[in-house]
Specification:
The chain is an alpha+beta fold. It contains eleven helices and seven strands. It folds into three domains: 2-157, no CATH class; 160-233, Single alpha-helices involved in coiled-coils or other helix-helix interfaces, CATH 1.20.5; 238-364, Histidine kinase-like ATPase, C-terminal domain (Heat Shock Protein 90, 2-Layer Sandwich). The protein is 68% helix and 12% strand. The strands form two sheets. Strands 1-3-4-6-5 form a five-stranded mixed beta sheet. The longest helix has 78 residues, at 126-203.
Length: 369
């Protein structure tokens, strides 16, 4: 219940916490009318509500205190309302707040013992204790599983953010290096020729005019280099995506299995496949719960075929933006997209293999498995 409180909308929180409490109020309802009894039940329930609210706020730091408070309240209130035993079930919802699964399991066992003690104090039979024990075990198991899953997602998200930060740092270093090697060299040459033309313009105007003409060519060449750099930085193709994808899979504990034939790709195809790989691997990392991911790229009958397969749960939101974008980009190139569920999720993308133009040099090298 603790992970539910931490993540669900208020509507579901009210339903999860409010509906079981109806059992608590069934006790004063079935008894003869007694104002003092209703006041006592109201005070107990107010204390319980406050403890639950504080538990939601403090469980990350003080899970033991929250659980002890709810169990103690259950024992105090049971003589007045036997149905107050449900407070122990709510306490079971916080066992996932412990960082170690072993401690959480041990606390769940202690709560089972508390439930047994409550049943003994009430003089209830085995059937009653068994039912309550099943509730405690179910809620505690859900709490442990959900909290563990949330922590795993949090660690994975931190790893992905770190990988993205390192990738951005490497990209900035590459940009700085490229600017220094190309634009920096051109600017230095321009400065030298301007200085030389300035010296020659009075005594040797013809030589100065020649230097200025050469300077014009240097400027034009520099502009071409800048345009090429901008084009390169604004497009993340297939080759640039696969290595980041490999690192992301490894960070998520998923074994990557990449195998690509040497295929010459037109620029549009290269960019489209890079987008598909990025979206597919993001889905594998975030939703598949897989342990193995396989990628294949090959040429078949005049088409480039990309396959992405995992051994996870096969989850896919076909209405999501990423899936729609994959279909749109591949359809624009006359290609086809197929998603297949089985033992995991399989994606197959097939695009007509247009040859790259003479100006394009995008080459996807063979990558060892």
């Amino acid at each position: 219940m603790y992970p539910l409180l931490k993540n669900a909308r208020w509507t579901w929180t009210v339903l999860a916490c409010g509906l079981p409490s109806l059992w608590y109020w069934s006790e004063p309802i079935i008894r003869p009318p007694d104002l003092s009894l209703w006041i006592a039940h109201g005070v107990i329930f107010a204390v319980f509500t406050a403890a639950l609210y504080l538990g939601y706020r403090l469980a990350d730091r003080y899970p033991s205190s929250v659980i002890v408070a709810l169990v103690a309240l259950a024992f105090i209130a049971t003589p007045i309302n036997p149905n107050a035993v449900i407070f122990i079930i709510y306490a079971a919802g916080f066992v996932g707040a412990f960082r170690q699964v072993g401690i959480s399991a041990l606390v769940a066992v202690v709560l089972l013992m508390a439930t047994a003690a409550q049943a003994w104090l009430l003089g209830a039979g085995t059937a009653y204790w068994t039912a309550m024990a099943l509730f405690v075990v179910s809620v505690a198991s859900y709490s442990i599983f959900s909290a563990t899953h949330l922590r795993h997602d949090s660690v994975l998200r931190l790893k992905q953010e770190e990988l993205e930060r390192l990738a951005q740092l490497a990209e900035r270093e590459r940009i700085a290096r490229d600017l220094h090697d190309s634009v920096g060299h051109s600017l230095s040459l321009i400065a030298v020729k301007l200085h030389l033309a300035e010296k020659l313009i009075s005594d040797r105007p013809d030589d100065a005019r020649s230097e200025i003409q050469q300077l014009r060519e240097v400027v034009r060449s520099s502009l071409r280099e800048v345009r090429d750099l901008v084009h390169d930085y604004s497009h993340q193709g297939f080759q640039n995506v696969i290595e980041n994808g490999r690192l992301g899979l490894q960070a998520a504990g998923i074994e990557p299995d990449f195998d690509f034939e040497q295929v010459d790709l037109a620029s549009e195809t290269d960019q489209a496949l890079g987008f598909v790989v990025r979206e597919a691997l993001t889905n594998v990392i975030r939703h598949s719960e897989a342990t193995h991911c396989r990628l294949r790229l090959q040429r078949q009958a005049g088409r480039v075929v990309l396959r992405v397969e995992d051994d996870g749960v096969g989850e896919l939101d076909r209405t999501g933006f990423g899936v729609r974008s994959i279909h749109e980009r591949i359809a624009a190139l006359g290609g086809q997209v197929e998603f297949t569920r089985g033992q995991g999720l399989k994606l197959k993308v097939s695009i007509p293999c247009a040859e790259p133009s003479a100006a394009e040099t995008d080459l996807v090298p063979a990558i060892a498995q």
